[in-house]
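Hi F.,

I've been meaning to write this up properly since the lab meeting, where we talked about keeping a consistent format for the predictions we share between groups. The idea is simple: the sequence comes first, exactly as it goes in, then the structure tokens exactly as they come out, then a line or two of notes. No screenshots and no reformatting. I'm using this chain as the first example so we have something concrete to point to.
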Amino acid sequence: IVLIDTYNVLRKENPRMPAREVIVRTGAQRLRPVFLTTATTILGLLPLASNVSIDLINRTIVYGGHVSAYWVKLASSIVYGLTFATVLTLLITPLMLILPQRLGAIYGFIMNRLGYPVKREAGLVDV
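Output, unedited:
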């Protein structure tokens, strides 16, 4: 959501900038926050996902303990889900943001080749 909002804000602030450049700037601005939150969450859940229980009070590390056995499936699903969601956020979302401009450009090209006049909007020419 923040990635799309950043794209919309940059698009409003720079209406003459090509859509591809706006998407690259959006990705550059949001890469560090997305990656850092994902990395810290995954690294924090990794011991629990690998069935390791760390007791800070008694200063013991137990593999396969009673506490971690209950949480392994939940931690594993969060780690894998967050990894998949990060890939979607950083790769697929920018691709989906440029898709309407690309489809418009393809449509305009096809219609011009067929001999139909097409109005060109500012967002369709620069892709």
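Notes:
DSSP finds four helices and two strands in the chain.
The longest strand covers residues 52-55.

If this format works for you, I'll send the rest the same way.

G.
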